[in-house]
Amino acid sequence: MASKLLNIALAVFAIVLPAVAMATEFTVGDDQGWTINFDYEAWAKDKVFRVGDELVFKYTAGRHNVFKVNGTVFTNCTIPPPNEALTTGNDVITLATPGRKWYICGVNDHCANYGQKLAITVLEEWASPAPAPSPSTTTAPAPSSAYGISVSGH
Q1: Where do the record's region annotations for Disordered lie (predicted)?
Q2: How is the beta sheet containing 90-94 ordered, strand by strand?
Q3: Predicted model pTM
């Protein structure tokens, strides 16, 4: 009985843990944060972004902001309406869908003249592991008594 419960617990753990452990939190710009004169293209180049991951934009509130924009707005550094900006200085964006994503700073000319813009590609989330077989279909080998050791269920 105890081994059956252990198998069930391990199966649940194996299914739940990867979903929790797979999400990654990316601090945009690492130690530099969200700032001007930083190469965000180089920063993002070797990273793999997946659905469920989080982008954290850290900056001094009032000095910068974050807009999620489309590709045209990104290319042209067109500043959206101020009420669409994230402005806390610790803005967390959960990547909810796969595809290309664009972010800019809308303060002054930070996007156009100082490169404060980020473009990433978000991939599908990690595939879920195959479900574990149900305990009723799993049979464990009978305990061996080849060495004179008795195994009991108590």
Answers
A1: 130-154
A2: 25-27, 54-58, 90-94
A3: 0.70
Q: What pLDDT, in 10s, does the model give residues 58-73?
A: 999 999 999 999 999 9
Q: Confirm if 57 and 118 have CB atoms less than 8 A apart.
A: no
Residue 104 lies in a domain: yes
* Assigned domain for 149 exists: no
Domain that includes residue 37, residue range: 23-126
| Domain CATH for 77 | 2.60.40.420
Question: How much is the average pLDDT of 115-123?
Answer: 98
52 assigned to some structural domain: yes
Question: Three-state DSSP class for 114?
Answer: helix
Contact 90, 58 (CB under 8 A): yes
User: Could you tell me whether strands 25-27 and 99-104 are parallel, antiparallel, or unpaired per DSSP bridges?
Assistant: unpaired
Put residue 127 in one of left, alpha, beta given phi > 0 → left and psi -120 to 50 → alpha.
beta
